[in-house]
Amino acid sequence: MLHHLRIAVIGAGVMGEAMISGLLKQNLIAADQIVATEPRAARREEIEQRYGVRVTDDNLEAAHWAQVAIFAVKPQTVPKLMPELRGALREGELVISIAAGVPIRTYVQGLAHGAVVRAMPNTPAQIGEGMTVWTASSAVSEEQRGWARAILGSFGRQMFVDDETYLDMATAINGTGPAYIFMVLEAMIDAGVHLGLPRYMAEELVLQTMLGSVHYAMQSRRHPAELRNGVTSPGGTTAAALYELERGGLRTVLSDAIWAAYRRSAELGKMM
Question: Are residues 189 and 136 in the same domain?
Answer without folding.
Answer: no
